[in-house]
Amino acid sequence: MSTTEIKFGGFGGQGIILAGIIIGRAASIYENKFATLTQSFGPEARGSACSAQVIVSDDRVMYPYVTKPEILMAMSQEACNKFLPETTDNATLIIEKDLVEPQNLKPGITLYGIPATRLAEELGRKMILNIVMVGFFTSVTGLVGYDAVQEAVRASVPQGTEVMNLKALDRGYEYGEEIKA
Amino acid sequence: MSTTEIKFGGFGGQGIILAGIIIGRAASIYENKFATLTQSFGPEARGSACSAQVIVSDDRVMYPYVTKPEILMAMSQEACNKFLPETTDNATLIIEKDLVEPQNLKPGITLYGIPATRLAEELGRKMILNIVMVGFFTSVTGLVGYDAVQEAVRASVPQGTEVMNLKALDRGYEYGEEIKA
Question: A17–B21: do the CB atoms touch at under 8 Å?
Answer without folding.
Answer: yes
